[in-house]
Amino acid sequence: MCGIVGYAGGDQAAPILLKGLAKLEYRGYDSAGVAVYDGTSIQVVKTKGRLKVLSDKIHQGADLSGVVGIGHTRWATHGKPSDVNAHPHMSQSGKFAVVHNGIIENYLSLRNFLTEQGYRFVSETDTEVVAQLLDYFYEGNLLDAVVKTLGKIRGSYALGILCKDHPDCIIGVRKDSPLIVGLGKGENFIASDIPAILNRTRDIYRLEENEIAVVKKTGVAIYNLDKKIVEKTPCHIDWDISSAEKCGYDHFMAKEIMEQPKAVRDTISPRIRDGEIVLDDIRLTEEQIRNFTRIFIVACGSAYHVGVVAKYIFEQYTRIPVEVDVASEFRYRHPIIDHKVLVLVISQSGETADTLAALREAKRLGARTISIVNVVGSSIASESDDVLYTWAGPEIAVATTKAYSTQLAVVYLLAIYMAEKLGSMSKTDYRFYISQLESLPDKIQEALNTKEHVRRLADQFYRSDDIFFIGRNLDYAMSLEGSLKLKEISYIHSEAYAAGELKHGTISLIEEGTLVVALATQRRLFEKMMSNVKEVKARGAVVLGVTTDNNTQIEKETDCAFYVPQICDMMLPSLAVVPLQMFAYYVAFLKGCDIDKPRNLAKSVTVE
Ligand code: F6R
User: Fold this and answer.
1) Based on the domain organization, do 215 and 80 belong to the same domain?
2) Is 353 near ligand 1, meaning CB less than 6 Å away?
3) Residues 388 and 471 in one domain
4) Residue 495 is part of a domain; what is its CATH number?
5) Residue among 66, 76, 25, 28 nearest 45 (CA)
6) Ligand 1 centroid to 605 CA: how many Å?
7) How many Cβ atoms from other residues are within 10 Å of residue 548's Cβ?
8) pLDDT level of residue 241 (50, 70, 90 thresholds)
9) Residues 213 and 305 in one domain
10) Hey, how many other C-beta atoms are within 10 angstroms of the C-beta on 223?
11) How many domains in the chain?
12) Substitution site in 253, 305, 348 for ligand 1 pocket (most atoms within 8 Å of beta carbon)
């Protein structure tokens, strides 16, 4: 989704802004622009298309002189992708330039009001009203104008503001959309995400809701809406810079797939001590765990698919009934929730608008909330009662891989932990499952080692028009993720079905040569799955089976197969997902798709 960078320092701003925006490209965007104060006025250059188009237009920034500026990558919501709708947006007077992530919900009424006041609008965006409102309220005091403007706008926003009368500073402000302030030496920044500034500083402030940062070369001051100074403690980012670089891989997605053993190990290891699961990051008492009558799991996209796996895991281990909901549905369906309900919210970014809204709804209804989040200090992490971080490191590719795997790892940790407290799992099983969990990183590595085989099969099937994924039970949950991964990056039409459900309609779509990926890792359901394989083969399907090592029986029933290492059935999803991710990657690679930035998609979906 949209990206923001702002710079106030001693160097030329434009090249720094372009470099920062390049680090945010992974979020997905359709146009880009920069605004720099050149000593006399604010110069804006913006264009539809890739950042390279913008960069070429201003000769990598050399054409724009000035040491203070803001930049933006836009993912269209209000108004199609176009030069004029790209950010920054100027006020009619030329006094203000604004970049914005999020949505101004009441922009139409504000636009009407401002039009009546004589303001003319040039774009179709909601953002332009912010620039004009700032101008409307401005009487010489910038902070006053910002606070008055914030008092009028409704919705979600991270804003970067440049004012011609205060050319030494940029303003950053946020509500329901993330924004950080970077603290450099003789230079300071704003950014919607850390990678944008990581090559210049590692010290940051995370802005909280409605905080206003006044960022100058000489220092940063943070105010609240009462215009009182807010004291904040800087936070040091200790990621390896290579976490935000491709390090020789063709794509971030390939790198992130290969990083899964480490990401899962980093997530699990600190939480298993002397053979016990220790979750000292959450404050759930045994009594609270015993009192839960139900668990709701709420998330979007792949994180929702983790939730579908988690339902089986929690119900099996804890015997507490679980409901899984897509966050955008949960928030409007009046869920039956009280203080005896645990709501688990899963999100890589911690900023997904629907998931955040669902979390707020759950809290409003009195539920106990725990989030499983990757981005430290994100909105969902801050607002939930407890947070279990996935230590996946920054995930740059739009299609999630290592975040998915670490979310799943946290689900196992939490479910086994709760089961032990509830007494629903014997001590022997508890120890067994912990040992299985500890073996996961190495087994994921073994699964990754089959990549050449997966690539060969991708080579065989990448020209397919339709690909079906089927499975039962946990394999069905995996089918959902395998299918999403494939379609989102390769643009091949794909559907996931519970294998037993296919014959209730969808089997009519199977014709001679249709590829069906049949997941058959669950031992007790293997025979049933093979019956479903026979059904599709009888209609002409080509079947690619997925099962565990040494289960060569699958070769009698299917045309080809992926094998994953043996582990307890409950943890097989963590291994089965690996060849599915690699298959999607190689298919998209062979089709020449823009793998890290698939069309129309955004990394962090901060609008409803
Ligand atoms: C798919 C994918 C998305 C996200 C979804 C939720 O590969 O990445 O489906 O899983 O948009 O995002 P988060 O986890 O940031 O809430």
Assistant:
1) yes
2) no
3) no
4) 3.40.50.10490
5) 66
6) 8
7) 20
8) low
9) no
10) 19
11) 3
12) 348
At position 323, the amino acid (one-letter code) is: E
Distance 24 CA to ligand 1 centre (A): 16
Q: Any bridge partners for residue 69, and if so which?
A: 7, 36
Same domain (yes/no): 312, 195: no
Backbone angles phi and psi of 94, in degrees to 5: 80, 10
Q: Is residue 600 part of a domain?
A: no
Query: Between the CA of residue 525 and those of 313, 347, 521, 541, what are the distances in Å?
Result: 16, 31, 8, 21
For residues 88 and 34, the answer to whether their CB atoms sit within 8 Å is: yes
**Using CA atoms, how far apart are residues 233 and 235, in angstroms rounded to an integer?**
6
CA dist., res. 88 & res. 105, Å (int): 19
One-letter amino acid at 327 equals: A
Same domain, 141 and 264: no
Terminal C-alpha separation, the chain: 12
Q: Tell me, what's the pLDDT at 600?
A: 84
**Which tens digits make up the pLDDT trace of 144-188?**
999 999 999 998 899 999 999 999 999 999 997 889 999 999 999
Q: Give 141's contacts (C-beta < 8 A, 6+ positions apart).
A: none
- Is 186 inside a domain boundary? yes
Q: Tell how far CA 384 is from the center of its chain.
A: 17
Query: Largest Cα–Cα distance in the chain?
Result: 79
- By most ligand atoms within 8 Å of CB, the mutation choice from 300, 326, 330, 585 for ligand 1 is 300
**293 in the same domain as 154:** no
Residue 246 lies in a domain: no
C-alpha 527, offset from chain centre? 37
Residue entry with tokens 């990657």: 585
Name which of 507, 494, 503, 500 is nearest 522 in CA terms.
500
- With H, G, I as helix, E, B as strand and everything else as coil, classify residue 444: helix
Q: Are 541 and 515 in contact (CB under 8 A)?
A: yes
Least confident window among 93-102, 312-321, 374-383, 573-582: 374-383
pLDDT digits (tens, 9 = 90+) for 370-423: 999 998 788 999 999 999 999 898 898 999 999 999 999 999 999 999 999 999
Ramachandran angles phi, psi of 32, nearest 5°: -150, 155
With tokens 């709708």, the residue in question is: 85
Please enumerate in sequence order all residues whose Cβ is within 8 A of that of 319, keeping only pairs 6 or more positions apart, or say none.
422, 424
**Torsional sign, CA 203, 400, 159, 49:** positive
What is the residue-wise DSSP string for 58-89?
TGGGTT---SEEEEEEE--SSS-S-TTTSSPE
- Would you say the CB of residue 359 lies under 6 angstroms from ligand 1? no
Q: Are residues 133 and 44 in the same domain?
A: yes
Ligand 1 atom nearest to CA at 301: 9
What amino acid occupies position 244? A
Note whether 259 and 265 are within 8 A (CB).
no
Range of the domain at 358: 252-448
Q: Are 72 and 172 within 8 A, CB to CB?
A: no
Claim to verify: residue 19 and residue 153 sit in the same structural domain? yes
Tokens of 467: 């690909």
CATH number reported for the structural domain that contains residue 110 in this entry:
3.60.20.10
